[in-house]
Specification:
Layout: H1 5-35, H2 40-47, E1 51-58, E2 61-68, H3 112-132, H4 142-145, H5 149-158, H6 169-188, H7 198-208, H8 212-226, H9 235-251, H10 253-261, H11 271-275, H12 284-303, H13 309-314, H14 323-333, H15 336-342, H16 346-355, H17 362-383
Antiparallel strand pairs: 1-2
Length: about 375
């Protein structure tokens, strides 16, 4: 992933603000719950039966969008889709920000006017994210990389994409495809709509799959597992951060005590890794490798591999739905000495996590993750 020099220097500041925003949002949400000062619609949110909104940042403005606090336990059906990734060109506004409860909720639904306004908001954000996608995917998609200027502009006009004159034809075409599919998904799943980070998950799929309708349904399958990352109540994110924290605690008590001392034992410094499935820390090819292994584990769990005693004997590590989290914990543990000896604040750990981009060995990461699964899987499962 490539960044401009200025943004490399400043990105840790934006991520630090993101983490503080995350914590404040969760604390506010929990205080509201504890104090019992919620209206009926907010009570419904906690029960998982209503719609809610998310805030995502674009052009330094807070834009309200719909989100879901319902979750799907279905596994991702992305057969035929080999992931690659877009990489991004970021500015300070490209920060994954936190959800808030919307005052427009009434009886768990939104008015048609509000739905229209939300879709307009999603459209603006989708376009901002789409035109910032970089060209890291080019070596993996020759047909799209050699698209003509005429076809690229026609695709952009078809989805109403503007402000793309500075882009090459292949980037215009890629952006237009992102817009078309992400808008379709926002209509397909209006409870989630669109949130920043979703384009990171889609871009690998459209780099490999050339037909939009096929890419759309693969993305729908992918989001069955990933959509909980974009829920209003943050239940999915908090569960995953809790697992990362426990993996570190059980594996390395010294490192965990240091994180406690810095008030970082909640592991919010890996928030971005969780939300976009390590996409922004790994190269295009590394992302393909990690996601393929992750999906294979999830498929194995779904069909029951690893449940029998014979299967457990033959397997080095049992399949798990949480391989990504073990990989994230492994990336932190690989830097344990640096964190313990040199870092004395949350900001410094955030900066280190940001610097991982492009510096990770995905195969070493997977080896370490599988070692953690072997030694800690049963203990983690029983502690949840």
């Amino acid at each position: 992933m490539q960044f401009s020099g200025r943004l490399v220097q400043n990105e840790h500041i934006a991520i630090s603000e993101e983490v503080e925003s995350a914590r404040e949002s969760l604390s506010s949400y929990e205080r509201t719950t504890d104090d019992g000062i919620m209206d009926d619609s907010t009570s419904i949110l906690l029960e998982g039966d209503s719609r809610s909104t998310r805030i995502t940042n674009a052009d330094d403005s807070a834009l309200n969008t719909d989100s879901s606090d319902t979750d799907s336990s279905e596994d991702a059906d992305v057969n035929g889709a080999s992931p690659a990734s877009d990489g991004r060109e970021y500015d300070e506004s490209d920060v994954l920000t936190k959800p808030e409860i919307s005052p427009t909720l009434k009886n768990g639904t939104l008015s048609p006017v509000q739905n229209t306004e939300d879709f307009s908001t999603w459209q603006r954000i989708i376009r901002l994210d789409a035109v910032r996608a970089n060209c890291e995917w080019i070596p993996y998609s020759y047909s799209q990389a050699t698209v003509s200027a005429t076809r690229a502009c026609r695709s952009a006009e078809a989805v109403g994409l503007k402000d793309y004159d500075h882009l090459e034809p292949y980037r215009i075409f890629h952006a237009a495809r992102l817009v078309a599919i992400l808008e379709a998904y926002a209509l397909y799943d209006p409870e989630i709509g669109y949130c920043q980070g979703m384009s990171d998950l889609l871009s690998p799929i459209i780099a490999i799959i050339t037909e939009d309708h096929e890419a759309f349904w693969c993305f729908v399958g992918f989001m069955r597992k990933a959509r909980h990352n974009f829920r209003l109540d943050e239940v999915g994110i908090r569960r995953q951060l809790k697992i990362v924290s426990r993996i570190i605690k059980f594996k390395d008590s010294h490192l965990y005590r240091h994180l406690q001392k810095l008030q970082a034992d909640d592991c919010f410094f890996v928030y971005r890794m969780v939300v976009v499935l390590f996409r922004r820390e790994l190269t295009f090819e590394q992302t393909m490798c990690l996601w393929e292994v992750m999906w294979a584990d999830q498929a194995a769990v779904k069909i029951g591999i690893g449940k029998s005693a014979w299967s457990r004997i033959r397997q080095r590590a049992p399949p798990t739905n949480d391989l990504l989290l073990y990989a994230i914990a492994a990336s932190v543990l690989q830097r344990r000495k640096l964190i313990i000896e040199r870092y004395n604040s949350m900001d410094e750990i955030l900066r280190e996590c940001t610097s991982m981009a492009g510096q990770l060995d995905v195969w070493k990461l997977l080896d370490d993750a599988h070692d953690l699964v072997v030694t800690l899987h049963n203990k983690i499962e029983s502690s949840l």
